[in-house]
Fold these 2 entries.
Entry 1:
Amino acid sequence: MKAYRTVKTALRALRRNPMRAMLTTLGIVIGIGSVIAMMEIGSGSSQSLQRAIASMGANVLMIMPGSTASSGVSQGAGSVASLTPQDCQALAEGCPSLRAAAPVVRARTQIVYGSRNWAPNQMYGTTPAFLEIRSWTLASGQPFTDRDVLTANRVCILGQTTAQELFQGEEAVGKEIRVNNVPLLVVALLARKGANMVGMDQDDILIAPWTVVKYRIAGSTLSNANQSSSGGSSSGASNLLSKPFPSDPPDLYPARSDVQTRNSPQLVRFSSIDSILAAAQSVAHVKPAMEEMRTVLRRRHNLREDKGDDFDMRDMTEMTNTFSSTTRVMTNLLLCVALISLVVGGVGIMNIMLVSVTERTREIGLRMAVGARKRDILRQFLFEAVTLCLVGGAMGIALGHGGSLLVQQFLRWPVETSPTAIVASVLVSAGVGIAFGFYPAWKASRLDPIEALRYE
Amino acid sequence: MNFIELHNICKTYTMGDIQVPVLKGVSASIAAGECVALVGASGSGKTTLMNILGCLDHPTEGEYWLDGEEVSQFSPDRRALVRNHKLGFVFQNFNLLARTSALENVAMPLSYTSENLSDRQARRRAREMLCRVGLADRLEHEPSQLSGGQQQRVAIARALINRPPVLFADEPTGNLDSHTSAEILQMFRQLNREDGITVILVTHDADVARWADRRIRIHDGLIVEGEAATSGPGGPNEGGRP
């Protein structure tokens, strides 16, 4: 008996009693429908949860300079000046798993406005990418630009707490404050972020271009830093700070050729930065991003195979773990619900198929009398059960998808279509059909044609 | 050798510990193209013999030669093949598939043949068969829309769809009135005469048996009378010939 004929026979048998076929398959429809709806709504929630956690900084990576020791006395983390702004640029360009990278230069000093003064907890010199990495929005104003960084423009962005302390509720944007006697124009105000996980006030902050913090505020003058950097940087050509001002004094040393640069790289980078802040594309990209960053930095720092890293990397392991365990619990929960509903649906199918076999005993006897073999009967009833389940599954997918779209439309819940769930539902409903349809079909095939023909 | 040869067929059913012999050594032969009536009171073993002849059951002992093959020890699947190719069945209660058109009912056995007929061919052949039994205008009717005689004719068309050499009819007129019965029996005769199909009628009704060329009477598991008879039915014959 050919397969398509079996399918046709099964369909014909189901069509003979469409109402019952519908009711039989209702269990599967509801089961698959709820699975699809829950998968879609669940993965939508999981996505928004992921975004929420990511905005807390779960995909943020920190690169700190390594430690040094003199005479056996370790100087602690960050005691080597091994990171440069060029490292940061290379990371942003050379690591596909990274969304952005920003250099960070820290300072701690007094800021003054009028008769008030304050020392913000955090004073960061960085690039505009910093705001993107921290997913930090502005309450008002416009952020400073890359050009401001390049030209060391005297601008800054204030956090809510800092602004409150200095301005007492007055409008801060457009005012000029003094930081270490350097006047800075406040161009923007950050949105409130509150305390971080260890209770530190994140709004007590001042952000300025890193060139400003490093060269204007933190003491060193631009000209002498520049003097050394032109000779010290191994990639002088890409050094954004080589010629910030046309009035620079001429170089004291003759320019080195490429060969000289490669043969004896300068180990000290004078325009060093305190750390690099980077953001991976997503939480899942954190691990590959760290590998890529390690490769890029080791190459840039000319580290041999046997030498250890001269930098440290940190990720937000705690948050990442929270995230992955949340996802895991959610997935397992959905899986349990799916399994239970499908088993219930499958039992319904088996029940009705058994009734159907009993009811159609004479038909089975007749089919056997005209030449159907056991396996033909088995196949016919198995196909009926699988067809029921597949039709039910298809209706369930439509129902579930429609349901989740309604939820999205009216309740404004985030919903995400999951092709995996749809494929899995089709496979699972076929599997349920085979698993629960087999026993009735086997029972049908075991009937004795003589008894079956005489059955009343 | 005749088309159908039975040699000392025995059938014993085991009910718990008790052995119930139903057929106690039946030997008979039926030539191709014969029209035979298998007669006997209920409980005589007539139905059991019919089941064995129809390859639905296998005998406990004895040989059954059908068209040159010893089929008594065939596996169930091979018996199904024999039924499909060589035998046609007509039942007392018609056994048509409910809520299925006459055409589809007739075409049903074609699903189980090894011939690869397309759907169009299958439907054409089913239509031919229905025309032959005089139901050309009832192709799409369902059994519930047909009279008893029409239903039985659909059943006959179904039995003939695979062009079997043998047609078994188990009490074919049991559920029909006398007029329709005569029509159906007339059709059997016609098939027997014109197409050379061997017809085996199983009945307890002497009037029906009279339509056959020859009657085989069974009593208590043994054949008691196997001669050609056009006269009325003989009385029950105790003892008999083994």
Entry 2:
Amino acid sequence: MTAVSDDGKRFKRSGRDRHATGNVPLRMRFGVIMRSMWQQSGGRFALIVMACWIAVSLLSLFWTPYPLLQTDGGHAWASPSAAHPLGTDGVGADVLSWLMAGSRTNLVIALLTMLVSAMIGLACTAVMVSGRRALASAGVVVVDALIAIPTVLLALLFAVPFGASIAVIVAACGMTYGLNMARIVKPSASLAARSAYVQAARAMGVSAWRVFFTHIVPSTFPVLAVQLSMSAGTSILAEAGLTYLGVGVPSGVPSWGHTLTTSVRLISVYPLTVLWPGLTVTLVVTALYLLGDAIRDCADPLANVELRKLAATVSRQTHNTGVDA
Amino acid sequence: MRYLIWRLIWFAVALLGLSLLVFAALRILPGDVASVMAGTNATPARVAAIRSRMGLDRSYPQQYADWLGGLLHGNMGVSAISGRTVASQIGSHAAITLPLIVLSLLVALSIGIPMGCQAALAGSPRVRSVLHTIAIVGGAVPALWGGLLLIMLFGRGVGLIGILPSQGFPDAGWHAPRAALISLILPAITTGLVAGAGIMRYTRACLISMEDSDTVAMAMACGMTRRQAMLRVGLRLSAAQLVSVAGLTFAQMITGVMVVESLFNLPGLGAMLINDVGNRDLIAVQSELFLLAAFFLLLGLLVDLMHHALDPRLGERTQHVGGEEHA
Amino acid sequence: MNRTDMKDAMAQDVDVATRPQLATSGEILRVRDLSVQIADKTVLDDVTLDIGASERVGLIGASGSGKSMLVKAITGLLPRAARVGGDITMGGTRLQAGDDAAFAALRGRYVGLVFQNPGAALNPVLSVEQQVCLPLRLHYDLDAGERRDRVMTMLERVGLPASLAGSYPHELSGGQQQRVGIATALITSPRLIIADEPTTALDAIVQRSIIDLLVSLVESAGASMLFITHDFAVLSRATTRCMVIDRGRIIETGDTAALLHDPRQPQTRLLVNAAKTLTLNVNPEHHHA
């Protein structure tokens, strides 16, 4: 299956990014991008939810309203009350405490999935834009072929030797999202690979790896960032599904999927309990999708005026110092 | 044509690689499958018997060759647990899962494409942004939770408007087609809605990216209204991309489908795989996973070929007919 | 009567049959106080212009001056977010901004557009024949044979061999693509042709032949034309009147020859000088002037 989210227009755009902001240090660009994201309603919502998620994950390492293993047999399936703000589950454990503790597991899964998919994605991209024609076209076709394999089949495959574990989720998600990422990043990467400055660097004898990481990867950054935040969101959905199927997070480890799974039983009798983990997942995944959209809008120098102004200022400064020296 | 041959060759290579991946992943199993399968208090003789019956006493290359040879002859082995052939096992479970996937995809496309068009083209900016929000939030709902909410709404006996069955598949199977179909409605809507939100997002994005394209402007210049031009030209030009998205959605929907099968208690492929993986039924898992993955590779191939057929620019090599322009 | 003239006469049938009311009006396009804002930025500011029957008007302006926006505003192709004020009257119809159906009824029938970059504008999934036929299909109820006849005649007039009728745009050269664009714009014999820098995307050698083709076809059809170009020679040869646009305002307008030889506004002087250097095959006298 060929490129999913890329049309010729974006292709051309990311090529021009380099010329517009290539001379601006990433650190300075980051500040401007964050500020313009904050000014959008979607971006602001995403940033707030992300901050809360990280804060709650850290907090849960030290404190939760109740210890996770403390159960109150007399108050199973309790409705929300002052003592249990979100109620209790089937064994009388506090739902809020489990959701808080689950947020750190999901954060770890999301971060690891982003890491693994970025590694796999960039490795495939490197092959697909490599100078050797045969290798490059073989890479394209292999990625096209393997991209169709569903996450759940890989998870089931890995679950046979390794059992249910976080590693299974990360490996399965990382592989499928990595392949998808490779295909979406490829147009801007190959544009950068053909550009004059890369040709010049190669001619000067800079090693292929160095060229890839210093010139090609930065040029794909806006597209890459969008894909990474999408991957993080999808990994949370996958965690819920895989955990429910018994090949995700092992039982006893808190996660949103785990809370969702434990509250599924007796849904007809106590529907309120299942509301919270589902809402949490929907909220966080929505925020991650919006984060991706906001990054796309704000990291694109053609769409973001602030970024262009910054580039203009920096180039004027470098120009001036050049003249002074 | 050249692309087709090239793609077919790599399809075969990918299949071979896939079989190696499946085989290897299942052999790095810590511990001995045969003894796990024989149970904790089995005699060494019984373990050895299982091992030799499953061919596990042979060398890995030999096991691989045996398995591959069997696959080529259509012999996928016999499940060590149920004693049925893997082929018949897959067949009976796929009879539930495949219709479910197809129904889900139908729901997803019939919701996603019109709503996506509306999200891009609706006259009022407020309607557009509400539809966009629906698409994003809808895609963020876990299938499990969405299914639960639908059961709470429509599930017979439990829901507020209990009109649809939410548990199990009729014993008569497809011999009672009406009952069978009805039992798949709620599960199909569950996965279809979630996947439909994704397709809606892509449809919207594709159309919006066409909005200021010269091709749409030219169609308007020929006499189409903006809406006509977007639907007849913009959507047509996005078709190749949308087919790719639909194909990927189809592939990834299987996760949601397995969850929903389990939630609605349908004995489909998901239940079979989970069961076999849980039992570490090596032979069955090996063939089942390979076959399913091969099915999705084939799907990917078809989607790729369709993508090429929909876009004449990708068809043959660009050639200038009629020679160079004369001054 | 040679063969081409006969075909011309046939193409005129369309007008006579369907547009009796248009023939009575000597005024082809009338624009009054047209203003356009996009995202709080004024791109057109109180533009007023008229184009009469068989009149050929040039429009020059620096990039970003609002030339293309003017074309889009006249034809109703502005982005949805644009806010439009003022009056546009075309073919006897007073057009309300945002009345897409009314604009669409005129586009491709009363006014034909030739785009700057045919490679991007031509629909990649339509064959040459289907593309050229599109305005006919949208506006006239002809049977398939008649449509085909008209398309083939048109292809011949723009100098495309009949063998290319089944080709797709990506199989054509840039010049051939623009010939398809011109054929599409002219197939319904519109009263007004708007050409927005129709040759900037083409090779220098091809440019001249395309412009000659376009001008001669418009001339022989007796249509009016609004021509955006920087080609000095084309302006002086093909247009009688010329307008200069700068930052969304028409700053100067007048007889082409006079305007090009003796520009009054400083911006016009800059543009005219730039146009002179860009123009191909300029007569040496023009440089000394």
